[in-house]
Amino acid sequence: MDRNMICLDDFEKSAKEKLLRAEFSFYAAGTDDEVTLRDCGEAFNRYRLRPRILRNVSTRDLRTSIMGQTVAMPIGISPTAIQGFAHMDKEIGTAIAAAKAGVVMGISIHSTSTIEDIANAAPSGNHWMQLQFMKNPRIAETVVQKAEAAGFKALVVTCDMPVLGKRKVLGLRLHPRHIMVNLDLPGDAEVAEYKANGDGMLMRYGAGQFISPTWEDVRKLKQRTKLPLVAKGVTTAAGAIEAIENGADAIFVSAHGGRQLDGVRAPIDALSEVVKAVKHTGVEIYLDGGVRKGSDVFKALALGANAVFLGRPVIWGLAHDGTNGVSQVLDIIRDEFSRTMALMGCSCIGDIQPSMVIHESEYLNAKL
To answer: Known catalytic residue: 127?
Structure first.
């Protein structure tokens, strides 16, 4: 345990020192003017807390159920690409830390560790596989088959990426551990050609795989898999309703970390609209984007999320100290969330209520 790491922002500072500038920018950069990137975090500060007092909170139970599985706390790990840039432990190290903490880990289709290696390294892990529809249909088909065989619990379908956003990423120095293993299809002539022409890490091949999927692709996927589908990248009521109508089993409110459409609302600002639109369906709702403190977790749950997920903070933890760094990130935010629950008068997740959070516009207007 590194006692110099007090909060999640400390891990970002450490990662900036440890990583090459291009590697850090790969994870840290947003798109265009990075308005959404900044607002994802700043938006949480626009919500104020309304605590209950004199409640017995001497013990707190952070456990909850996500997608029918009991988890140690309503905090998971978002799918994040190419973790080999951050540390040689890669996704395997993150999976081990997630399993130890008892939380969900999302695994990117652009992972640098195989599905089998992740499952073998963390056999007790609660793994979700992120899926992106690509030009070569064999990629998604193979990933789904492997995820099912490995005992993964859900598929996270990225819905906000018809093209790649214009990201402020510097040129990267490639290393064999950076290869996007799920794209490396054995016997595929096109993959072999790209590798023969110097694209050993399949970066150029992957960049050329983007297509513009539709809800028909989601419906077809629903028919082909036994796993529940989580629609990720939803920020509007209309999008949430469409997702459910086309087979989604859960909604993931996300702005892709400010790495796709710049100017879209911060997820915490979009959350209430989505919750209101689909509340009657009973589907679970998750959120990522800008979560950095235990109080952020509390605010999201009070506004209707069933769980929140961390993206960049986990990468910064991985860069800081591999598996141990990820574990420390999860420990810190768990402790912060538990402390916030106590200060808010809550001893279990069910005690968290919408009335405990108010937007500052209502708060400031009330003062006038």
So the answer is: no
